[in-house]
Amino acid sequence: MSEPLLKIENLHKRFGEIEVLKGVDLAMNKGEVVSIIGSSGSGKTTLLRCINMLEDYDDGIIAIDGETIGYRLDGGRRVRRREKEIALQRAMTGMAFQQFNLFPHMTALKNVMLGLTKVKGMDKSEAEALAERWLERVGLLDRRHHYPGQLSGGQQQRVAIARAIAMAPKLMLFDEVTSALDPELVNEVLNVVRGLADDGMTMLLVTHEMQFAHDVSSAVVFMHEGRIGEQGAPAEMFRQPKTERLADFLRNAKF
Amino acid sequence: MELQQFLSEVWIARNALIAGLGNTLAISALAIVAGTLLGILVGLAATYGHAALRVITRLYTDFLRGTPVFVLILACFYILSVIGVQLTAFQAGTFALALFCSSHVGEILRGALQAIPKGQVEAAKSIGLTFPQTFLHVLMPQALRQILPTWVNVATEIVKGSTLLSIIGVVELLLAVQQVIARNFMSLEFFFLAGFLYFLINFALERLGRYLERKVALPT
């Protein structure tokens, strides 16, 4: 049996007095698409941010391809890695944010190219070709010279996804990528995500789109109060929830 | 005719006036460039430095911004020599203006950097940029656009502040004009000329600022 691509063991995260993650275990194999659902405050987003080391975590292990993220174990003690190492580890995962977070002073093309030239060390023409390929993939090649301010929310999010994915991450993280969008713009983004799933991209997504989670995921994880309440195949999870909490949550969720 | 007499006096004094104007431009340019560069470091330290560094930069900016430029110039000229730093009046005065400039640039830069949404840094981090890269390619270009209008204000203050160097004997434009007046007693005309030249410098700075603003404005 091969090592899982993402392995999380006993993950704990505190914000001051409040413990947001109270021991999360999760494993994902290459090519899997896992959706995390759960009510707000259950720790979904925090979990994603820990994987990308946008938050330090207090205890436990996050490992990608066997490499512990953010910390290394030194004689049983957790030692935070150096910033430079962490920066490189962050590039192993791509992240798409709820608020897109495109760089407003760069065109769509430059947004995608920045990481390629500065982190991957590609030369300009190589980076440009790759960036154009991904912008084409998300249907925005004709908008490559537009600035974020000239794009709709859905277009911005697609550029942001292209920016993350162009870095060829081992794992793509999606943090409620459609929550900030007008309803009519949601589908264009979901279609891009669905396309990536079909390509076999390993993806972990936090979403409120239950139908989408049902359709696209190989597994669904329900988080509740900082723990994993239940996980399983989407069909079982949505049709026959084992716990009362998930049943409750699904009753109130929109499909 | 009085205008003709004024013009001939200007012609006679042309070398002194040009030298004074040149000094004013040199002092201003040096102080603005050095002060801006130093101010960027100050703003960076004030925003992202460790707690101790932030306290130090806080004291630095509060002290410098709370002190009249005039006092700073006198202090740099008289006190630095006492502690063994021998500067000419030109150097000491320019240094004082640069310090003053840095405290203002540092403060406006801090404001601009803090106003950049946190998501920008997170997005930069998530594609693997280190902090220096993030600062250079993501934060600074946004902050500089933000501070441009205020920065032009600071620059014009420095040009005006350069007149105070006349007190420590630097023959910049104002002192050059005063020396000319001492010879020909045409105080009204020559002070007007000085005022007009200062206006021209600052007007040019302001136009330059507007031009840059337009040039770097982001299309929406």
User: From the helix content, strand content and strand pairing of chain B, which structural class follows?
Assistant: mainly alpha
Average of per-residue pLDDT values of chain B: 94
Q: What is the N-to-C order of secondary-structure elements of chain B (H for helix, E for strand)?
A: HHHHHHHHH
Assembly context of the chains: heterodimer
Largest interface: A-B, 30 and 22 residues
* Major sheet characteristics of chain A: 6 strands, mixed
Distance linking N and C termini of chain A = 36 Å
Silhouette of chain B: flat
Q: Taking Cα atoms only, what radius of gyration of chain A do you get, to the nearest Å? A: 18 Å
Which H/E pattern describes the elements of chain A? EEEHEEEEHEHHHEHEHEEHH
Largest sheet descriptor of chain B: none
Q: Which structural category do the helix and sheet elements of chain A fall into?
A: alpha/beta
Describe this entry's structure for a reader.
The complex is a heterodimer of chains A (255) and B (220). In chain A, the strands form three sheets. Chain A has a six-stranded mixed sheet, sandwiched between helices. Chain A has a four-stranded antiparallel sheet with strand order 2-1-4-5, with helices on one face. In chain A, strands 6-7 form a two-stranded antiparallel sheet. The two termini of chain A are 36 Å apart. In chain A, 45% of the residues are buried. Chain A is globular and about 50 Å long. Chain A is built from nine helices and twelve strands. Chain A is an alpha/beta fold and 255 residues long. With 220 residues, chain B is an all-alpha fold. Helix content of chain B is 84%, strand content 0%. Chain B has helices at 2-12, 14-48, 51-66, 69-82, 89-115, 118-126, 131-161, 173-184, 187-216. In chain B, helix 3 crosses helix 5 (89-115), helix 4 crosses helix 5 (89-115) and helix 7 runs antiparallel to helix 9 (187-216). Chain B is flat, with a radius of gyration of 21 Å. The mean pLDDT of chain B is 94. The chains are: A alpha/beta (255), B mainly alpha (220). The A-B interface holds A 52-54, 83-84, 87-88, 90-91, 93-95, 97, 99, 101-105, 114-115, 118-119, 147, 149-150, 160, 163-164, 167 and B 117, 119-120, 122-131, 133, 137-138, 141-142, 145, 218-220.
